[in-house]
Amino acid sequence: MSDGELIETPERTVITTVDDFHDAVEAIALGEGPVAVDAERASGFRYSQRAYLIQLYRRGSGTFLIDPPAIREFAPLQSVIQDVEWVLHAASQDLACLREVGLDPTTVFDTELAARLLGLPRVGLGAVVEELLGIHLKKEHSAADWSTRPLPASWLEYAALDVELLIDVRDAMAVLLKEQGKERIAEEEFAAVVAREEKAPAAEPWRRLTGISTLRADRHLAAAKELWLARDALARETDIAPGRLVPDSSLLVAAKALPTSRRELASLKQFSGRASRSEIDRWWAAIERALTTDEIPVQRRATDTLPPPRSWGDRNPEADARLKAARTALTAVGEEHSIPLENLLTPDFLRRLAWRPPQPETVENISEALGELGARPWQIELTAQPIVDAFVEAHQEPETASDGDS
Question: Are residues 346 and 368 in the same domain?
Answer without folding.
Answer: yes
